[in-house]
Write a structure and sequence with these properties.
The complex is a heterodimer of chains A (about 70) and B (about 160). Chain A is of the alpha+beta class and about 70 residues long. Chain A has a single domain, classed as TusA-like domain (Translation Initiation Factor IF3, 2-Layer Sandwich). Helix content of chain A is about 30%, strand content about 35%. A 4-stranded mixed sheet of chain A has the order 1-2-4-3, covered by helices on one side. In chain A, strand 1, helix 1 (about 15-25) and strand 2 (about 30-35) form a beta-alpha-beta unit. Chain A is globular and about 30 Å long. Chain A starts with a strand and ends with a strand. Chain B is α/β, with parallel strands linked by helices. Chain B has one domain (about 10-165): DsrEFH-like (Hypothetical Protein Ychn, Chain: A). Chain B has 6 helices and 7 strands, in the order E-H-E-E-E-H-H-H-E-H-E-H-E. Chain B has helices at about 25-35, 80-85, 90-105, 110-120, 125-130, 150-160, and strands at about 10-15, 40-45, 70, 75, 120-125, 145, 160-165. In chain B, the strands form 2 sheets. Chain B has a 5-stranded parallel sheet with strand order 6-5-2-1-7, with helices on both faces. A two-stranded antiparallel sheet of chain B has the order 3-4. In chain B, helix 1 (about 25-35) packs parallel to helix 4. The longest helix of chain B has 15 residues, at about 90-105. The two termini of chain B are about 25 Å apart. Classes of the chains: A alpha+beta (about 70), B alpha/beta (about 160). The interface between A and B is medium-sized, with 20 and 18 residues.
Chain lengths: ~70, ~160
């Protein structure tokens, strides 16, 4: 299981989701994508994205202005 | 549409507006739905056809737009209609809006449209509008289908979510 990283800081809706989706597409099942975002709206959006696509949201954390998400490719 | 996940919902959007500001709602929802593995169809009619042109030269107008209050020097500025009619005001407002879009990390319409094409969003141009405004299919980006009201309605009837914008 490999962990891949996506820096989506500074990007606004829906770019963090679009970029995450694009990266997830190329990953094998079970790999994890770690996303860093500064868009407060991405907290709700990544949770909904995971529910709708079946990819698992392993974690959703915030530290200061940066939100970090880990999504496991289904 | 080839999907790699479980989402089987579908969405259709009718895009009727051709300004820079109103280009956002259909493309943001269209690309986001595609990212959620929905099957997405966007039908472009009337001024919405602007959004499919190869040469995307989108503008905003402050005229008759009292809801548009641009952040400026810590305040919000609306444009009185009488000022909006002065030549160059719309061009200035368009430049301001484009600068704001860049500064806030908002995607350009060009990028969102490319994302829509890449994620296999079905793009349909209204044949009647092409005829009415004398727009050639060659003026539109590649991969656009042509269709009419019945095509749009057929898609709408099979979609879980339908938006008119």
């Amino acid at each position: 299981m490999a962990v891949h990283e996506l820096d989506a800081k500074g990007l606004n809706c829906p770019l963090p989701i679009l970029k995450a989706k694009k990266m997830l597409k190329g990953l094998p099942t079970g790999d994890v994508l770690k996303i860093e975002s500064t868009d407060p709206g991405s907290v709700a959006d990544f949770a909904a994205f995971a529910r709708q696509t079946g990819n698992e949201l392993l974690s959703s954390e915030s530290a200061g202005d940066v939100y970090t998400f880990e999504i496991k490719k289904a | 549409m080839p999907n790699d996940a479980s989402n089987t919902k579908s969405m259709s959007i009718i895009a009727t507006k051709g300004t820079l500001d109103w280009a956002y709602p259909p493309f943001i929802l269209g690309t986001s739905a595609a990212a959620m593995d929905m099957e997405v169809t966007m039908f472009f009619t009337f001024y919405g056809l602007n959004l499919l042109k190869k040469d995307l030269d989108l503008k905003i107008s402050t005229l008759g737009n009292p809801g548009m209050k641009m952040p400026m020097m810590g305040m919000h500025m609306a444009m009185p209609n009488i000022v909006s009619t002065i030549p160059g005001v719309d061009r200035g407002a368009t430049t301001m809006m484009k600068n704001l879009i860049k500064k806030k990390g908002v995607a350009s319409i060009e990028d969102l449209r490319e994302a829509a094409v890449e994620s296999d969003v079905r793009l349909i141009a209204c044949q009647m509008t092409l005829d009415l405004f004398e727009i050639k299919k060659e003026d539109l980006i590649d991969g656009v289908e042509l269709g009419g009201a019945v095509t749009a309605l057929e898609v709408a009837g099979e979609s879980d979510i339908n938006y008119f914008m």
